Each structure stands twice: as C-alpha cells, then as structure tokens.
Amino acid sequence: MTDQIPQAVTWGLAAALLATAVLLLRQHGITARQRRRNADLVREVRAREEELRHLVSVRLPALADHPGQDVPVIGPRDARIAATEYGRHLERVLALFSVAVDHAHARADRSAKAALQASMRSIQALANEQQISIAEMQDRHDDPDVLRDLLEIDHTNAQFGRRAQAIAVLCGSWPGRQRATSPLIDVVRGATSRIRDYRRIRVNGQIDIAVESRAVEPVVLALAELLDNAARHSQPDTTVEVTVQTVHNGACVVIDDAGVGMDAQAVESAGRLLDGHRTVDVTRLGDPPRFGFAVIGVLAQRYGFSVSVDTRSPYGGVRAVALLPAALLTHLEPDTPEFPARPAPSPEDIPRRAVTEGITEGGLPKRRRRTPRRQVALEPEPFDAEEPPGRSPEENARIMGAFARGTRFGRAAGRILDDDVIAPEPATPHDNEGTPHA
Amino acid sequence: MTPRPRPGGRLVRSYVVTDGRARPTRNTLDLITLLTAADDLPPTGLTPEKRRVTELCRHGALSLGEVAGHLGLPVSVTKVLVADLMDSGHITTRAPSPGSSYPDEQGEHPPTARRFDAAILQEVLDGLRARL
C-alpha cells in the first residue's frame, strides 16, 4: 500500500505534467498567433496612418491645387487598404473634399468675374467717352502741335480701352460696340490702332473681303491681342508682317514676328487656351496676369473663328494664323464715292426746275413754294389716324397745315359760340325771377 | 458737314492713318485748296485712305475740306495725307477758284470770304438744285 502511494503520486505528477505541457503548448500556440495578429494589427494601423498621412499631405493638397481640372488623381499608397471599408471611407472623404473645393472655387471665380466685369464695364464706358471727346478735339483743332498731342492721347486711350474690353470679355461680357461691316484690311488696321507699337506693323495683301458687322469688334480684339504679343516679344527694331489672304472657305490673317519664338510647352499651353473649350479661370492667369490667349480663345469659340500659334515664322519668331470662316465674311461692294467730284455745272446747264419769284433785297433769288398755295379750307380736313408711317414731307406739311387750320377754325368758332352764350345771359336772371311770379 | 463718327469712334484711328505724324510735309494747304488727282500714277502701295483721296479727286477738283468730310477724318489729319500724296505726285493742287477767296492788298488769302458775293451764292444754289 505504501509503495503504491509514490506510484500514484508519480502518475499524478506525470498526468499533471502532461496536462501542463499540453496547456503550455496550446498557450504557446495561442500566444504565437496573438503575437502574429498583434504584429499584423500594428502593421495595418501603421499602414492606415501612412495612408491617412498620404491623403492629408499629398492627395488633398493636389486636389486643392488644381480644382476642377483633369489632373491625374493621385491614388492610394497601399492597394490592400483601398479595398477595405477604411479605404472606401478615405475615397469618400476625398470625393467630398473635391466637391467642396470645386464649389468654393466656382463661387470665388464667379464673384471675381462679376466684380471685374462691373468695374471694367465702367472703365470701358469712360474710355469710349474719352475717345469721343478726343475725336471731337481732333476735328476742332487744326494746329499740328495740338494734333500730335491729341494723337498720343488717343493712342494711349485706345490701348487702355482695349485692356478693359479684353478683361470684360474674359469675364463673360460681350465685346460691345456695334460696328458697320468693314473691310478686312481696316479690321486689321483697327486692331493695329489698339496696340503700343503700331508703327512696326506692316499690312500686306489686297483683298476686297469685308467682315460682317457683328464680328468686327471681336475679330479686332482678337487680332489686337495677337499683334500685341507679336510686337511685344520681338526686337523693337524689327517689323511685324501681317498678310491677309483668301483661303478655301474664308480668309486668313497671318501674323509673323521676328522674335524669340515660344518653346514647346508654351505652344502647348497657348493651344489649350486658344481652343477656348475650357472655362477660363481668371484667378489663375499668372502674375502679372496674361490675358491675351485666353481672351482670343473665348472670342474664337463664341464667334466661330480659329487662331493657332503653333507654327514657326520664317523670320524666326512665331507665326500666328487667324482663320475667319466664310460665315463671318461678306463681299465688299465696289467703293464708289457717294458724291464724286465733278466739274461744277455752269448755270446754263442747270435745268431751272424751280422758278424764282423775284429777288430779295440782297439780290438773292427768292425761294418758291414747292406746291401751290392751297385755298384756306373752312372745314378741317379729316385726319386719318390709321395712315401708315413714312409720309412724304409734303404730306406731313399738308396734315400739319390742316391740323393748324382746324384748331384755328375751332378757336374762332368757339369765340362765336361764347359770344352767343354771353349775349343772352342778362336775360336769364330775369327769367329766373320771372318764374315764381308765373 | 463732316459725318459724325459713330458712337464707337473710328475703327482705324487717326495715328494709324498718318503713321503717327501730325505735321504735314508742307504748310501750303488749307480748307479750300482744290485737289486734283494725277491720272498717270497708279494708286499702288497707297494706304486705303490715300487711295480713297485719289479716287475722290479723280473726276475733278475737290476742296480739301470736302475730301476730309468724305473720308470722315479731321481736316488736320487729311492735310498730312494730302501733303504725302503731293510729295508722291498723286495729287496736284490748284489755287482756289476765283471768287471763293479774295487776295487782299498783302496778297494773303483770308480763310473766309469777307464780302458778300451773289454770283458765287447763285452758283451754290444752282449746284444744290441740280442735285434735287
């Protein structure tokens, strides 16, 4: 019995050891799994943190810098996280942020445009007013010195007006100023009138094509921007050659400068602005803002002409080509002076259509009435209110005469009537007094 | 008399018309100088305004004031153009027709007629009637 006890203890211990070992083994497995899991979780948390940092420091700023533009969106760092719920939430944050930025940006752009447009419109009106005053002064003064000063002021004012007009157009306003259908050459020279170095522009080509009234001002404005660019980016001692020619279905104006030209990147960005399909962001035109190509793009798109600057000029600079479709053009009727000069007819040649009635005191012939004097009608002539407009002067005179005679007659008749009324008046009180007695 | 410029102003500004010059190359021109175009010179190489001046003066003499009116340009600007055309031989000037200007004792031409002349006024009247 006593030797059985140690045996039992041994068995018991063995069983306990075994159980402990099994438990330890299991615990070890659990711990290892837990550790692995912990490590995984730590990795995932780190990855998420990284992803969040990436979102905040890279992806959102990229979106904020290019609102509403088709920049390639920067993707998540870790593709595995993108597939999780967390990743989808991050994408949602990005989308919401993008919408908010776009809205804020659109609102800012709208208000900037509205403010610019309103102020430019008033500046434009002032420039126009000043231009009219200058034109009147030019008509009034005959002194070359005064004229020289006026020409200078006029030139500065024209550039000033063009700037205001360009900014207003960029902000969605119309170019304004209805003009008559004008020869294409004059349209080019009108554009020349609005730039600083107008004396360096040489216009070549003789075509009898005119620009339709509605397109004159926009084409002038677009060409002025091109000419200004050409003159500004070339040496002051070079000329800017403008060639006007007809093409298959329209006309084109080719502007060559002998300047430095543009690099590929500049040509590409100019091409993007010139095609005019993108809304122009007035807050992102650079500092100082460069309006030129953006304005041309807006006008070209709105009026249906096209401008390209992607060719090199044979003179080394840029060749800008403005292509005006036939829809904006018309043919000019032959230029005949309305009152051509001719030798003064001798008095004998003139058919004496008007017969003079005597001579005035100064020895001048008296003018005769065109129609014989009408007998003064006693009855006013019926006045036809339905008569269509566009009467001849004689007819007008007749109607007005009839009206005057009618009122005169009416007044005279009224006086007679008044006399009639006044005359029996003393009798009426008598009658009134008489009635009670009756 | 000069047609008033449209509210928007002239499309081609005066300084482009004269290439920036304000002083005519000669100062013998005034409002009533009569201009005649020379027939033998082709109007090649002329600006549209200069070509128009030669066209206007081709059929006979026209005064500078009238030319300015037809072009819609200020008289001072027209003078610059006409002086250029005289230099290039496209335009010749003629003394104003007798009667429209009166040389006084000093031989100067006063800008306006000083006395009343029925014959000229009669001619003007006849001319106007001929247009009716």
TrEMBL record, chain B:
The segment annotated Disordered runs over 90-111
Please name the InterPro entries in this protein's record.
DUF742
- Lineage, top-rank taxon, reads Bacteria
The UniProt regions of compositional bias labelled Polar residues, in chain numbering, are: 90-100
Entry-linked PANTHER family: DUF742 DOMAIN-CONTAINING PROTEIN (PTHR36221)
Identification of the protein by name: DUF742 domain-containing protein
